[in-house]
């Protein structure tokens, strides 16, 4: 028996990573087997697909009917409202564009919380990028609900705020980084679930800290993209090619994600939005929204944040000029008038 088991483990170890993950679905906990997923945009659809591949019983909802059809055509259960998703789920994950969308999905008509009536899911995970204040408001509303079926010692449901970093490629590959706030016990219980969508899961602390970490991360990302773009344009104006500057940045103190992984200059790097006319990726409208969240949070605590304000103004202007659907790295071309690398 031991020899057979060893051979089975050896065979499993030789399988491709994606197949190994699917094969491990038997380890899914019974109180997390049924997962509802709401918000099937560029990120959410890929996250949901990874859970489906891992063997979870997934039900989905989105207001985009064409996306819903893609899932129903694959035999995935689709529901007409968030409340219908909650009625059959142990865990519900939301991935939505803005705080108003999140509030509506949780507390609006036909929302997840069912007007304060007892709910079936014991755990709600919001992976949207929203402000900590909204996160804590929703978490409080969830904690005031009761469970239809008591889960172990739980009598009330809990919430984790778990926004992500890594973009569409990482969502596709299942290599996202999750920044998680909420009860630590719930975080530990959900780590296995997170592992099928990401490779890094970082516990940040109490409710709202995951959301806070994400807006800080995106603030730094926006400022670094502006700095790198400005430097590239200056270099071009002084007779240095972007390719040369990229080699210098990436082997010196200017090295950052915006230069070595997500270079904004068309013609320098393959497989990034700048190589496809800034299509796909992280839309400038979403970056402007996140910078508004960072600015509002800074204002609330009286923090002087001049770079946040400047970055917010630049990306807002970019959107006002019609570039909102383009990846935020288009700031190199559309704001700084940078030149493509020939």
Automatic annotation (TrEMBL):
This is 3-hydroxyisobutyrate dehydrogenase. GO terms for biological process: L-valine catabolic process. PROSITE patterns: 3_HYDROXYISOBUT_DH (PS00895). The lineage of its organism: Eukaryota, Viridiplantae, Streptophyta, Embryophyta, Tracheophyta. The active site is at residue 214. Residues 208-333 form the 3-hydroxyisobutyrate dehydrogenase-like NAD-binding domain. Pfam families: NAD_binding_11, NAD_binding_2. Its EC number is 1.1.1.31. Belongs to the HIBADH-related family. 3-hydroxyisobutyrate dehydrogenase subfamily. Pathway: Amino-acid degradation; L-valine degradation. It catalyses: 3-hydroxy-2-methylpropanoate + NAD(+) = 2-methyl-3-oxopropanoate + NADH + H(+). NCBIfam families: HIBADH (TIGR01692). The keyword Lipoprotein does not apply. Residues 34-205 form the 6-phosphogluconate dehydrogenase NADP-binding domain.
